[in-house]
Design a protein that fits this description.
Layout lengths: L3 E5 L5 H11 L5 E8 L6 E8 L1 H18 L2 E9 L1 E3 L4 E9 L2 H17 L3 E7 L2 E5 L3 H8 L6 H15 L2
Length: about 170
């Protein structure tokens, strides 16, 4: 199964993308999606994402391959914007389709944690007519740390423990 990974400089219709993704995987029992958009409020007038072109899309593709290696997915979608965006504009859409919901949830969560904290983007916000750089938050870095060990081992251990409890 190949992932659909795109880096776009132009706006995208997240709902049309998600509808197409859902229709492509009727065998999936679990479809999970995350849509990140430019927040309105906090006086934010615009958001800009800059990136290093030789690394960004290949890095996103490698991240998707890592998710595919960790979980048995039917499909994986990752669309990320770059350039200047306005409040309400979609920034990122990640969707995962799997036979079972847990694999889809984990894969989407894994993708977002890495895209948010360990990506190839530099983010600026415009407020009050001036731009300021935005760094990842400590919480984002902490979220990323939970993936540094092989997720399959603790999950399999949990499943074995549950199965052991059911055995007389």
């Amino acid at each position: 199964m190949a992932a659909d990974v795109r880096l776009l400089a132009e706006p995208f219709d997240a709902f049309a993308e998600l509808a197409g993704f859902t229709a492509a995987y009727p065998e999936a029992g679990g479809l999970v999606s995350f849509l990140g958009q430019v927040r309105a409020g906090d006086a934010v007038e615009a958001l800009e994402l800059r990136h290093y072109e030789p690394l960004t899309l290949p890095g996103m593709e490698a991240l998707a391959l890592s998710a595919l290696a960790r979980w048995p997915l039917a499909g994986l979608l990752a669309i990320h914007r770059c350039g200047e965006m306005q409040p309400g504009d979609p920034i990122v859409l990640v969707a995962a389709a799997a036979r079972h919901r847990r694999d889809a949830f984990c894969a989407a969560d894994f993708m977002m944690d890495h895209l948010k904290s360990e990506s190839w983007f530099w983010k600026r916000e415009k407020a009050g007519g001036s731009w300021r750089w935005v760094e990842p938050r400590d919480e984002d870095r902490a979220d990323l740390k939970r993936w540094q060990t092989d997720f399959a081992d603790p999950f399999e251990q949990q499943q074995e423990a549950v199965a052991g409890e059911k055995t007389p």
